[in-house]
Amino acid sequence: MADLKEQDNKSSGRASAEPSTNGPSNSDVQALEQENEFLKQQVQTLMKFCQLCEKEAELQQTIERDTKINEELERENRAIQMEIEAMDHLFAKCHVFEQSSAKDRMDEYAVGRTLGIFLKMYYESPALPDEDYAAIARFTTRVIDTITRDAQEETNDA
Q: Ranges of Polar residues compositional bias (predicted)?
């Protein structure tokens, strides 16, 4: 092809700008090598970008998972806090109950309310440690025993 081009140039009276070698010129090879190097750099840049995108997706999944875990922990913390507040309130009422007279202790509403709260907390509070269950059971038993004993004493006195 170079020969045809050279013949065409000779017949038209123009001098050939290309040497009459059978391969590409050094400048063509250098240009192709530079373009090849540039394309390699572009591929590496795209690969790094893809890796960053994958890491970003992983981080987003981790953030979503951690957010769900945090929300669940917050719900559990609120439930435990409510149980603690109920226990504090209950123990305060029980202290007042223990300080009251036998007649006051026999007040059906107070007794039923106090024991109902204890039993409900005892059976429906899975977040309490075993020692708390045992303390609630002991205290409930003590309250029932006190009520029974006081009622028998008042009956015997009458």
A: 12-29
Token pair recorded at residue 85: 């507040």
Q: How far apart are CA 107 and CA 113, in angstroms?
A: 10
pTM for this entry: 0.39
* Token reading at 128: 């309490």
**Is pLDDT at 90 greater than 50 in this prediction?**
yes
CA-to-CA separations, 139 to 81, 98, 119, in angstroms, rounded: 22, 11, 11
The Cβ-side half-sphere exposure at 72, using a 13 Å CA radius, reads 6
